[in-house]
Amino acid sequence: MFDVVYEDGTRSSNRKVSAGVLAGLDGDAPARGIIEAQDREIAAASGRARSDVKSIVRSPQKVANDDSGVDRKVRGGGKR
After folding, report:
1. Whole-angstrom distance, CA of residue 45 vs CA of residue 18
2. Is 56 left (phi over 0), alpha (psi -120 to 50) or beta?
3. pLDDT of residue 25
4. Which of 21, 25, 73, 74 has its CA 20 to 30 A from that of 15?
């Protein structure tokens, strides 16, 4: 997922791009073209064009906060 900043200062967060496209030697470079193509499709459907893309960066990964630091009991009924 990518965060996009447009020339007019607007921002779009967590834009999805297929991981298979990003697997080549070009790294994240193809993401720009894909996001621009998505924007063109959205503009055609909505009748409102987006500003040009200024920058694209990977969205920060969210870390699941399910570990509260408390030791949990191991469940199971068998003897050791």
Report:
1. 22
2. beta
3. 76
4. 25
Q: How far apart are CA 43 and CA 31, in angstroms?
A: 18
Distance of CA 18 to the CA centre of its chain: 10
Closest CA to 58 of 8, 6, 13, 20: 13
The model scores a pTM over 0.90: no
Q: Mean pLDDT, to the nearest integer, of 43-69?
A: 83
d(CA 28, CA 22): 6
- Residue 80 scores a pLDDT above 60: no
Q: What does the alpha-carbon distance between residue 8 and residue 33 come to, in Å, rounded to a whole number?
A: 19
pLDDT in tens, 34-53: 999 999 999 999 999 889 99
17 residue type, one letter: V
Q: For 38, list phi and psi in degrees, rounded to 5.
A: -60, -45
The DSSP call for residue 75 is P
